[in-house]
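Session log. Operator J.P. requested a structure for one protein chain; no other inputs attached. Running the standard single-chain path with token output.
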Amino acid sequence: MKHLRYLIFLAVILFSNSCNKSNTVFKQTGKIPDAIWLYSQPVTFTADLEDTTSNYNIFIVITHNAQYPYANLWTAVKTVAPDGKSYTDTINMFLADKDYNWIGKTKGKTTVVKYLYKDTVGIKQSGEYKFSIKHIMRKDKLEGVEKIGLIITKVK
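Structure written below.
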């Protein structure tokens, strides 16, 4: 009976660990000093992606506070592949709905928005991918943005 309890306990632990395996291969956040994002200061990330047989989803996570004055956020996202080739995407991320209610998870005066930047994208080369995210909001100092994050997950 003691061995049966032990086996059941072990099976539950193994099962719960297998269910909780994350498909996240990269997750990092860059803090914006004093919640004032300068146009001249992009937030950069370097992700080591090795699996060229899988597809990935890439998310940009915006953390802003109530001081953020707009319903959207225009960004330029530059990606540099391991061979040095680069491309830049211009993205308009909506942070509020048509009634100017914040989109995302709000806790106190802070709201976090997880934006799907790239859906089911493959990579041709393994190695370091560099991502640089900057705002392009026609204002040098953008108030209210506290953090910018990047999450890369494997598509199962």
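Operator note: The chain is about 10% helix and 55% strand.
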